[in-house]
Design a protein that fits this description.
Layout (H helix, E strand, L loop, with lengths): L4 E2 L4 H10 L6 E5 L2 E6 L2 E6 L7 E2 L5 E5 L10 E3 L10 E3 L25 E2 L12 E13 L3 E5 L6 E7 L7 E7 L2 H5 L19 E2 L13 E4 L2 H8 L6 H10 L1 H6 L1 E11 L18 E6 L1 E4 L8 E4 L2 E4 L5 E2 L5 E2 L31 H4 L7 E5 L4 E5 L5 E2 L5 E2 L3 E3 L11 E3 L7 E6 L5 E3 L3 E2 L5 E2 L3 E3 L3 E3 L14 E3 L3 E3 L4 E2 L5 E2 L5 H8 L15 H9 L9
Parallel strand pairs: 13-14
Antiparallel strand pairs: 1-19, 2-3, 3-4, 5-18, 6-10, 7-8, 9-17, 10-16, 10-18, 11-15, 11-17, 12-13, 12-16, 19-20, 21-22, 23-24, 25-26, 27-28, 29-30, 31-32, 33-34, 35-36, 37-38
Helix pairs in contact: 3-4
The structure holds 2-acetamido-2-deoxy-beta-D-glucopyranose (NAG) (7 copies) and calcium ion (CA).
């Protein structure tokens, strides 16, 4: 019987948190994604990103080789010694444990002597390429947190591609190309991780750093550099992880870049150590891998702090009333609002985005029947009504929308509890009214809805004071008072009371002005200066005399 392996370890906080900021030494009670700490202010909760501990992910993978029979030893064969390519009496025999090199030996405990390794058949079919795909599958999304390191016991391949999948092996994208000659092998400029910047972090590069030479003992590793990429945001010794986490929270592409469900190592050409392949002794050429390191953690969308391996499967132990292998959904009955991932930055800078109950019908919502949708506001720890109907508003739809007032004799649950203010658009200052439906009137206007005029004012799309009359405000120069609002001026005069002669100086200027032509020497002024001019032209004034 296999016991579930719990990936939660308290010890991790120390190392994890150390990277982010200084924490008090004394630890108190521990809870989900938070722990009680003693500070100067006493006992307080200290929040941390809700994610499982990082672990050696090679313990939880399934390895597949393509072609399936590419492992050496069936039938048994001899190959040249790893240390000395001229000693060709080593044996690979799948049926003898000591002489077998099965794929599992890429993931066993390393550090003993001699090393244990997987080995391919040798390049017997040269010049047909010796192609091998090694696929590592987790059947679970995981987030990488450290370099992928592949240790070759043969020479490092002269050409290989590291690929990744985010959809359980349905589609694949290259992660990095490796070659002794990038241009020749992949038509790519050779680059190194040091050439990358924050802007080009997601670029896929070809590197020659891990392919050069046919060195047996040293430089046996091929890397995919995760930490150097982290450092572009978190600084040289990853001292500013908060900056990286901030980026991860806001940039999906960046998150996805470090997320995988599968990895594939495509071996395209073995080490030859020379430009020429010795066709007479092809048992010198093969692939041998002693170790593959993949450090990461289950991706639980920041909704779990542990991940269990049970029945050959990794599963997040979801909190926050989320569910699914990656905590990617809200639990049934907890869909009060759309699911969303938590944040790498802990509370209070980030937010847990917990799922809230959805049995928040009219009763729980407390919206007086004007809405059956609520939203939980984490920051305020309160539920508010969404989309209040019937012209209501407010946390519980208990207020009237602006432009409406409360019918005090109606129940708060009445559909007609809010009455349109109905303010006259010309007579009132705004469309709002006070609690008894009185609008705020413009000068000269009166009535609850501002639709009537005070004495001395006349209604003309609102109440206008008298402009002219036949007593004190006479129209001049023969003008005729029209409805007390407007003097009808004879040709040649203008102004409110026809007091201004049209065109005191040049009659020609007037004609031009009338025709709307700017025949006058206009200053090359910016457009902003033109409205006064337009005003003058419109009102038949004389440019420039009226200015
Ligand atoms: C692997 O199997 C295929 C077909 O089953 C065969 O053609 C090929 O020769 C085999 N390769 C090795 C190395 O045994
Ligand atoms: C491979 O080279 C070694 C050493 O030079 C030699 O002993 C061996 O016979 C060669 N094998 C073949 C198949 O030519
Ligand atoms: C390896 O994977 C590639 C695609 O990623 C595929 O084209 C190829 O057929 C696979 N098998 C071998 C042996 O290369
Ligand atoms: C992957 O996991 C799912 C459950 O999440 C399971 O149904 C499926 O059989 C698994 N696939 C493999 C290949 O293990
Ligand atoms: C999830 O729902 C249960 C049951 O209502 C509740 O007790 C628990 O506090 C919720 N968890 C969170 C993190 O809100
Ligand atoms: C206010 O509500 C009462 C009771 O529903 C109703 O009789 C009355 O007509 C309403 N008043 C207005 C102005 O709508
Ligand atoms: C609304 O305004 C009217 C007129 O100014 C006033 O008589 C009335 O008392 C006001 N009502 C409220 C609730 O303020
Ligand atoms: Ca090994």
């Amino acid at each position: 019987m296999r016991l579930p392996v719990l990936l939660t370890l308290q010890a991790v906080w120390a190392s994890l948190c150390h990277a982010m900021q200084h924490y008090p030494a004394a630890w108190g009670h521990y809870d989900v994604c938070k722990s009680q700490v003693y500070t100067e202010e006493g006992l307080t909760w200290d929040y941390m990103a809700c994610q499982p501990e990082a672990a050696d992910m090679t313990k939880y993978l399934k390895v597949t080789l393509d072609p399936p029979n590419i492992t050496c030893g069936d039938p048994p064969e001899t190959y040249c010694a790893l240390e000395n390519p001229y000693m060709c009496n080593n044996e690979c025999d799948a049926s003898t444990e000591e002489l077998a090199h099965p794929p599992e030996l890429m993931f066993d405990f390393e550090g003993r002597n001699p090393t244990t390794f997987w080995q391919s058949t040798s390049w017997r079919k040269y010049p047909k390429p010796l192609l091998v795909n090694i696929t590592l599958s987790w059947n679970k999304t995981i987030e990488l947190i450290d370099d992928i390191v592949i240790t070759f016991e043969s020479g490092r391949p002269e050409q290989m591609v590291l690929e990744k999948s985010l959809d359980y092996g349905r589609t694949w994208q290259p992660y990095q190309f490796y070659a002794t000659d990038c241009l020749d092998a992949f038509i790519m400029e050779p680059k190194t991780v040091n050439d990358l910047t924050q802007q080009t972090l997601l670029d896929i590069i070809c590197t020659e750093d891990y392919s050069r030479g046919y060195v047996w003992k040293y430089d046996k590793t091929v890397r995919f550099e995760i930490k150097d990429r982290f450092a572009l945001f978190a600084g040289p010794r990853l001292h500013n992880m908060a900056s990286l986490y901030g980026q991860l929270d806001t940039t999906k592409n960046l998150r996805d870049f470090f997320t995988i469900t599968d990895l594939r190592i495509r071996l395209l050409r073995p080490a030859t150590g020379a430009t020429m392949v010795d066709e007479n002794n092809l048992s010198r050429y093969f692939y041998a891998i002693s170790d593959i390191k993949v450090q990461g953690r289950c991706k639980c969308n920041l909704h779990a702090n542990s991940c269990v391996f049970d029945k050959e499967k990794l599963t997040c132990e979801c909190e926050h009333n989320t569910t699914g292998p990656d905590c990617g959904r809200c639990k049934k009955n907890y869909q009060g609002r759309a699911w969303s991932a938590g944040s790498y930055l802990p509370i209070p800078k980030g937010t847990a985005n917990i799922c809230i109950p959805n049995n928040v019908g009219p009763v729980n919502c407390e919206c007086f029947g004007h809405s059956n949708r609520c939203s939980y506001i984490e920051l305020l720890n309160t539920v508010i009504c969404v989309s209040c109907k019937h012209n209501t508003r407010g946390q519980h739809c208990q207020l009237c929308k602006l432009g409406y007032y409360r019918n005090v004799s109606a129940e708060l649950t009445d559909e007609n509890v809010c009455i349109d203010c109905n303010c006259n658009p010309f007579g009132s200052d705004s469309d709002r009214c006070n609690g008894t439906g009185f609008c705020k009137c413009k000068k000269g206007t009166t009535g609850a809805k501002c639709h009537e005029c005070l004495p001395g004012y006349l209604w003309d799309n609102g109440c206008k004071s008298r402009v002219c009359d036949d007593e004190l405000l006479r129209c001049q120069n023969g003008g005729v008072c029209h409805n007390n609002l407007r003097c009808q001026c004879p040709a040649g005069f203008t102004g409110l009371l026809c007091e201004k002669p049209r065109c005191e100086s040049e009659a020609g200027g007037c004609r031009d002005a009338d025709s709307g032509q700017a025949a006058l020497p206009l200053p090359p002024a910016p457009l902003l200066l033109l409205p006064p001019l337009a005003f003058v032209l419109q009102w038949g004034g004389c440019w420039p005399a009226t200015l």
